[in-house]
Design goal:
Length: 278
């Protein structure tokens, strides 16, 4: 079975408060976009579960990869889960705020559920995914969601229809951002306007209202990310923002733009020209 785990972007990200357990209460809209990894899951030839990773270099041993954690998490529910060989081709950049690793884990769970006809509902699979990482349940449903709590409380959200007609440019500069470090630089606060109240408005009204609270501290630590954001705005984007804790920046364009133009403008960066997917 071959599936194509996709990335996500964050439309706005408000960090509301710090919890006693050290996590943070947030509000963000997560949206699936068309930048994909490739994941194949087949019955094991050796009687053991294996993971082979190609494509972008992943600085993580196989046993700690979220894909293997996903297999073990589902095995805890089914016991025993048949062994499989998993082949992952990494295309979505790591350390980008695009959720590539979380998508791989969630799509592994969905693929195993289908391959072995386990019959679990999406809600049950999301429960399993939540034990792996905060972004993982989103990729089980894989549609625009308002994420609150620590990011695992999900509710469907309606986006402005124009967003589906726009070109989406994603640019990831050659720098990584530690999520823990990003959170350490933020002072939580309630926003003047709740994200849920503004996200359905036209994109032309988002600037200054739909914001990412990580940008201030992340830009101070990695100014090249801010340079990418400014460059995309200069190219005529309707709306530009960093995704998650970075380092990827995305921009919506109302008019056509060429991938070659993006690569020429940001030669040291990973670039994808795509769209929001339903």
């Amino acid at each position: 079975m071959i599936v194509f785990p996709n990335a996500k972007i964050n439309l706005g990200l408000d960090i509301l408060s710090r919890r006693p357990d050290g996590y943070h209460e947030i509000s963000t809209v997560m949206v699936p976009v068309g930048w994909h990894d490739v994941l194949e899951v087949v019955p094991s030839r050796s009687g053991k579960t294996t993971l082979t990773v190609t494509g972008n270099t992943v600085d993580c041993p196989a046993e700690k990869n979220l894909v293997m954690k996903a297999y073990r998490a589902l095995d805890e529910v089914t016991r025993p889960l048949p062994p499989v060989d998993i082949y992952l081709r990494k295309i979505i950049p790591d350390g980008a705020g695009l959720g590539g690793g979380s998508a791989d884990a969630a799509f592994t769970i969905k693929a195993l559920n289908a391959l072995f006809s386990l019959g679990f509902s999406d809600d049950k699979l999301a429960e399993v995914a939540a034990t792996i990482g905060a972004d993982c349940p989103f990729f089980i449903y894989n549609k625009p969601m308002l994420a609150t709590g620590i990011g695992t409380d999900l509710a469907p959200v309606v986006l402005p229809s124009e967003i589906y007609r726009m070109k989406l440019a994603i640019v990831k500069p050659p720098v990584g951002v530690s999520t823990a470090r990003a959170y350490a630089g933020v002072t939580p606060a309630l926003p003047a306007v709740e994200l849920a109240d503004v996200i359905s408005r036209p994109l032309s009204e988002w600037n200054g209202t739909v914001k990412n609270d990580f940008e201030k501290s992340v830009f101070a630590a990695a100014p090249e990310i801010e340079t990418v954001k400014s460059g995309l705005a200069d190219m005529g984007a309707v709306y530009v923002s960093m995704s998650g804790s970075g380092s990827a920046v995305y921009a919506f364009f109302a008019s056509d733009i060429l991938a070659e133009t993006l690569r020429d403008r940001f030669p040291q960066c990973s670039v994808c020209l795509t769209s929001v997917v339903c």
